[in-house]
Amino acid sequence: MIEKNLESVPLRDIEGLPIGVAREESGELVKQVSFIPWGWEEEKAIAKVKEDSRENLTMTQEITQVLIRLIKTWGPFNFQNMDMPEREIRLRNSFFGDVWTAYAKLRVEAMGELLVFAMACPNCRDRFAFEADLRDLDVFVIEAGKVEECVRRYHVAPPMRIGGEACSYIDVRPMKWEVAHNLPGDLLGSEDPRFRAMAFQDAVIGADAIETHGAVLFIEERLETLRKIDIERLSTLVDEMAAGPDLATNVKCPKCKFEYRAFGDWRYEHFFGSTSLPESR
Ligand SMILES: [Zn+2]
Q: Model pTM?
């Protein structure tokens, strides 16, 4: 498990969202989320979205499309009074960890908590079905009443060099869903420079030597000045502030007993499909 300063709580003990959606005027975080019942109409609407999207949607874009159709209330917002483009803007501007938690909660509410992942052991290559109880999912939470309280200041020694300036502290906040939504392919959480660039631009919002006037700290030319050691240090901090579900699970191979961490299949078709149900084995 990644070392984080954030407390982790099983999904079953989380009433709403692990961070919260900010009210526009006050910045107050509202953690409440609710869904509409998922019936035939919703099933048809989601099937149509997938059919209409010319190229295949990425996993995260699928999650966006499913959630904007099924969410009833999202923090302070009533999605039922908004059209789809507005719901999508609200969701993409929300925290990554909140969106992913909502996706897991929706699965529990619509189809139950038991979920079967198809696994392949990296040691003996045996293929097996791993049954998980989604309510046991570890979720990292941030206790904050207002959106500005989600920012954490990290003092860094020796200083980081950003755009030629020596910075002794940097401010990091949890990543927004927008980053995941815009990712090409399956780069999420990877060490691919494209993912890191987008994560830094979104989550690293300040440093003592650089006045950003509310704009992003990592404009392209500053990104290009980063040294390898600072890229790694920044990645660690962004990771530490990544609230939301721990997407990898501890798995033990039934054949060779090898224990490892596996990233399950969270794509819509599996997560909400018949193959994910225990009965279908
Ligand atoms: Zn094995």
A: 0.91
The two tokens of residue 254 are: 């039934």
If asked whether residues 129 and 96 sit together in one domain, one would say yes
pLDDT of residue 4: 63
**Is position 53 within any domain?**
yes
Distance 28 CA to ligand 1 centre (A): 48
Please report the pLDDT score of residue 53 as a whole number: 79
Percent of the chain predicted with pLDDT > 70: 96
- Mean of pLDDT values over 107-134: 93
Please tell me the distance from the alpha carbon of residue 171 to that of residue 153, in angstroms, as a whole number. Answer: 4
Residue 55 has pLDDT above 70, yes or no: no
pLDDT of 67 above 90: yes
Respond yes or no on whether the N-terminal peptide bond of residue 254 is cis (omega within 30° of 0): no
Rounded CA separation 183/62 (Å): 12
Query: Do residues 104 and 159 both lie within one domain?
Result: no
Cα(261) to centroid(ligand 1), Å: 13
Residue 2, domain member (yes or no): no
> How many CB atoms lie under 10 A from the CB of residue 42?
16
Residue 1, in any domain of the structure: no
Q: How many domains does the chain contain in total?
A: 2
Whole-number Å distance, alpha carbon 276 to ligand 1 midpoint, is: 21
In a domain, 196, yes or no: yes
> Quick one: 265 and 156 in the same domain?
no
| Partner residues linked to 71 by β-bridges | 35
Residues 85 and 214 in one domain: no
Rounded CA separation 234/160 (Å): 9
- The reported pLDDT for the residue numbered 57 is 85
